[in-house]
Amino acid sequence: MIRHLFLMIWNQKRRNLGLMLEIFFSFMVLFAVLTFILYNYNHYRQPLGFDYDRVWVLNQDWKGAPAEEVRAVQEEIGRILSNSNEVISYSFSSNNIPYGYSTFITSLNHNNVSVSAHIWEADAEFPRVMGIQLSDGRWFDKRDDASVNQPIIINELMRKKLFGEQKAIGEIITSGDRKMEVIGVINNYKYRGEFSALEPGYFYRPDTSFMGNIMVMKVRPTADAAFEANLMKQLNQIAGNWSFEMRYMDEMRNNNKKITMVPIIIFLTISGFLIFNVALGLFGVLYYNINKRKQEIGVRRAMGSSKNSISAQFIGEVIVIATFSLALGLFFAVQFPLLNVFNVQAGIYFSAIIIAFLLIYALVLICSFYPSRQAAQLHPAVALHEE
Question: In terms of Cα–Cα distance, which of 222, 188, 259, 239 is closest to 58?
Answer without folding.
Answer: 239
